[in-house]
Amino acid sequence: MKVQFIHNFSANTEEEFSKIQNSLGKNIILKNSFNIKDIKTCAGVDLAYWMKDEEEYATCCIVVIDYNTKKVIEKIYSYGKVNEPYIPGCLAFRELPLIIKAVEKLKIEPDIFIFDGNGYLHFNHMGIATHASFFLNKPTIGVAKSYLKIKETDFEMPEDEMGSYKDIAIDNEVYGRVLRSRSNTKPIFISCGNYIDLDTSTRIIMNLLNEESRIPIPVRLADLETHIVREKLKNI
């Protein structure tokens, strides 16, 4: 799969990161660029980290499934040294180089990418799912297991029933949604990445759930794959 390069990764300060995020943020489109009936494939994206010789490494794993049958049809990974420090809210600058490297290996071009992380639910509306969308030129969704608190705004817990949700509004703008993907479990936090609206994002995530996990199938499979690959690479 081809990737379009929007910017390089030579920036290394929080101020430079923020400038890039604000510039890209002007081009976010929270509307569907597709018909949901046409979705055939969906990719889950996740990364895992480890230390070696006092240097940080990571692997990015992508698992592509058939949207209807939920069967795995492709899985690939990339790995390498992580060159950027961890700065809250700037995760994309650490992860995108490896994500791009992995995406370029895909033989199948997924219709939707779902990331383990945020999208529009971010202080600059530029979580990993949104930022990556500009390189992938594909609809993206962010699914986070924990809440990124913005402007000291807390979320309202949905009812303990699968499919229940509460929108997360900050300064009268909806940033994302807290969704009960299973009863008797912690909720997940979903947000648009780009080229998609929140209701459609919710519908897609609900279609990709099963009894094995509170996170959608492709993201869970990508997460499991990162642990397998990391263990293999740590000892090289």
UniProtKB/TrEMBL annotation:
Enzyme Commission designation: 3.1.21.7
Keyword annotations from UniProtKB, A to Z: Cytoplasm, DNA damage, DNA repair, Endonuclease, Hydrolase, Magnesium, Metal-binding, Nuclease
Keyword Magnesium: yes
Location relative to the cell: Cytoplasm
Main location: cytoplasm
Binding-site residues for Mg(2+), renumbered to this chain: 46, 116
Keyword Cytoplasm: yes
InterPro entries: Endonuclease-V
Pfam family, one: Endonuclease_5
Record's catalysed reaction(s): Endonucleolytic cleavage at apurinic or apyrimidinic sites to products with a 5'-phosphate
Domain of life: Bacteria
GO function terms (MF aspect): endonuclease activity
Function: DNA repair enzyme involved in the repair of deaminated bases. Selectively cleaves double-stranded DNA at the second phosphodiester bond 3' to a deoxyinosine leaving behind the intact lesion on the nicked DNA.
Listed name of the protein: Endonuclease V
Gene: nfi
